Fold each of these.
Amino acid sequence: MTTSQPLKFEAPDAGEETARADLYGLLATLLYAPPSQQLLDTIGSAGREGDGLLEKAWAELSAACKDSRAEAVRDEYESVFIGVGKPDVMLYGSYYLSGFLMEKPLAALRADLARLGLARDDTMPETEDHVAYLCEVMRYLIASDDALHANLTTQKAFFADHLQPWVLQMCDAILDHPKTPFYSSVAKLARAFFEVEMQAFDMA
């Protein structure tokens, strides 16, 4: 799977499921690698009105993109998520679930991915528990025409097993970092969206 395909921003009246898939795809793109200036400009021009937490978080991200340059965002990404030695903020589920990388949570994830008929692209250096990869899986489970695997029951189970136990902790780690002027807005949007997803799955 890959996060490099061009993003498509839907009109405000797009279906809820399309909007969910698009937002998972956007988060995957922003968290997998620093965004290009073109993507920053696109998000910066895609303002949205509304009083809900998700709408406010989107408006804050849009404003941050409008005011950001790709070079500065790249420096921030590399400093916080890559760094020298251990990154300041980890983007891998296994770290939050077990305290280490390449541990049992990753093995369980790989088993579930195999049951879904999914596998990591050999060109992707990150392991499957990277948050961007997991967001891409969720996007697939929402948008795919595969009736056997892409359904609400599978979405709920995958999210509950592989994102819900740790992803808010990751968002808080980004928000608590003193040098994330851009990625704090990404984390706010991600946190608001994941909380909405949790509430919706609880009611499903």
Note: The chain has a mean pLDDT of 89.
Amino acid sequence: MLTPTFHLIGLPTDCNSSFARGAAAAPKAIRAALWSDRGNLAAEDGQEIGHDFLLEDHGDLPLTETAGDDAIIRTAVTESLNAGAIPLLLGGDHAVSFPVVEAIAARHGPVNILHFDAHPDIYDDFEGNPRSHASPFARILEAGLCRRLVQVGIRTLNRHCREQAARFGVEIVPIADFSPGKVAVLDGPLYISLDLDGIDPAEAPGVSHPEPGGLRTREVLAVLHAQTGRIVGADVVELNPRFDINDRTAILAAKLVREVAATAARNLR
């Protein structure tokens, strides 16, 4: 059996952020934590980078923070898929998920999406910007790129977003009385989108929009590890190193990269 290969691709952009910029610096911070000697390359199930699966670092894309960046992202993801790899994207703000999913759906057809976040990111537009980091899933859904969107950790659902969720049939797992067993196990092709502000700011302080009352890391991992569908791509987004404390959020992001890759590798076997 071939060893699963993942391409780590950095997306250093935050031009669609709505409050504080800084997420463009996240890929460098996540890489530093991922390859640091303070930890090792093993996931919790015992699989190891370089042994049970390969994680090839393809660096950061030369993004220009213009409308042309979407095409650059789509091309890079397509090239990764053409090479037989599974793309793992390091944001950057959450706006990057739209062109990534565009490229993946062009190959695999409409995907199921498991989305961890404090915010639903389904605004029709936010502050006049339809490509805002608060809008990527509205763009994904209206383009027919997603069969099923399950959102976990949401705790900022305003009237407009409730209307959008009803319009698109989004499945939002209530954060009140949350338990990992309440989250569906999704069929593949499956895309995982991990916005770090979905996790409680006590554990992930390095984000632009901290929202108390969030998921714990163990809850996120329990949901992720329960997934059995074929994972065809993932992103980890919205780390803002400007607000991080002792690299805690970057270290968490690096762990999530390992765990997503290990889960995807397991599900291919």
Note: The longest helix spans residues 248-268.
Amino acid sequence: MKSLSLILFLLPCLALANDWSALQEDGAIAVMRHALAPGTGDPSEFRLEDCSTQRNLDERGREQARKIGEAIRERGIAFDTVFSSQWCRTRETAELLDVGPVVEAPSLNSFFRDYSTRDSQTRATLDLIEGTEGKLMLVSHQVNISALAGQATRSGEILIFRLRDGALAVTGRILVEP
């Protein structure tokens, strides 16, 4: 019985695995967790303007971001805007994807250290999505994506959303391993 429960629990995740067709649909919004950056959180001396004080992508993470971007481009997908958190690992991921112009969006900044901004940042991100025309991609952090989607993501994983009645509904997911 436990194995049946596990299968039923995992079935929705398996059904959405590498769903490129969902990303190609009109109105699809890609929300990606930054590529592989070993560790958790950021060092105590973290400063936004200084990448040397942050947890950053390693070479596997850089290669993962390039592979994801290549897979997206091979399918003829481009984004009008790629919004990124201001953290160095998300900006670097967004730039290495090379799938559209990168624009920093503070609402996508991690609130891992201070959950008091969770609701306001999530609302600001939804407002950003609602107020932007064209095909969008967002590159952010685990906590932000969980707040938006109610689902966890792995490093470099993309959730595909559609905006429905002011909320995001997950329609697919894509993971290109590092």
Note: The longest helix spans residues 59-74.
